Amino acid sequence: MAFSSDELNFLVYRYLQESGFQHSAYTFGIESHISQSNINGALVPPAALISIIQKGLHYTEAEICVGEDGSEQRLTESLSLIDAVMPEVVASRQSRNQQKQAVAKNETQETNGEEGAPTVTPAVTSTETMEMDSSIEIPEDKSTVLTGHESEVFICAWNPTTDLLASGSGDSTARIWDMTDNSGSLSILRHCIQKGGTEVPSNKDVTSLDWNCDGTLLATGSYDGFARIWTNNGRLSSTLGQHKGPIFALKWNKRGNYILSAGVDKTTIIWDAASGQCNQQFAFHTAPALDVDWQSNSSFASCSTDQCIHVCRLGVDRPVKSFEGHTNEVNAIKWDPQGNLLASCSDDMTLKIWSMKQDTCVHDLQAHNKEIYTIKWSPTGPGTANPNMNLILASASFDSTVRLWDVERGACLHTLTKHTEPVYSVAFSPDGKFLASGSFDKCVHIWSTQSGQLVHSYRGTGGIFEVCWNSRGDKVGASASDGSVFVLDLRKL
Question: In this structure, what CATH number is given to the domain that contains residue 146?
Answer without folding.
Answer: 2.130.10.10
